[in-house]
Amino acid sequence: MRFRLTDDQRALRNGVRGVLARRFDGEALRAAVEGSGAGGSDSGALRVDRGLWRVLGDLGFFALRVPEADGGVGLGLPEAVLVFEEAGRALLPGPLVATHLAAGAVPGAATGETVVAAVDGGLVEWLAEADVVRGDITGAVPLRSIDPLTPLHRVPAARPVPDPVAILLTAAEQLGTATRVCELAAQHARTREQFGRPIGAFQAVAHLCAGILVRAETARAAVYAAAVTADPADIAAARLLADEAAVRGTRDCLQVHGGMGFTWESEVHLHLKRAWVRTQRAGGVTESEELLAAALAPGPA
Fold this sequence. Notes:
Shape: globular
Number of helices: 10
Strand order of the largest sheet: 3-1-2-5-4
Helix content: 40-55%
């Protein structure tokens, strides 16, 4: 199933992609990783890029769904999905979903002046860098995150009911990762040669690339459809498909790259680590599985 974007939606997506390409390109990504203390660096001072955060605010990234009467952009979930897909594609760090959901409720969140974190189940992303934290963080303790660009804290709080919008926007970020690793796998398969031929000419590699593409496009259809219907069951299905496309797609992309994909010079393993962290958001995969199963179960006769 293919969704045709409107001219305005396409312009929005391309505009966000262009801004991120200029402000958070491959060099900026590597600098952020080095700043986190990963890859042999000893700095360990991971920070939110406040300048970029304000640029995103000026772009309307956070205020996208805030009504125009309240100073927002006045768009809807489909447009939010498109911009969060681009954020996932670029591996943009920071509590993006939490700040987006706080726009209109927390002063400064809509404009990017305020960084907002939120308790999500028993975890909080970017707690130390947040100006405002939504939820009870009593007893929060730092965790060693597998993703060098997502600092985590654990809190002994009760698990609230996941916000469907948070689930959908996380799925959109996963879709962005799935799309990006599909591009990386195809590019490597075309340019890397073994035995005098591009490795993409070998059936095993071609099948891996095809599988990455199929899962990404299946997830795209589900995520875009859920953005239109906003149905909780559709959102749960989109989340499951997007998680699979991101995690399995990145693992297959690593297989295409071989050992090169695990080096700090490559972004492939960073996509896998971010995808793993996202699977723990908004109730985790199990919550979406149970919601979808309940929606599909036959009602009483």
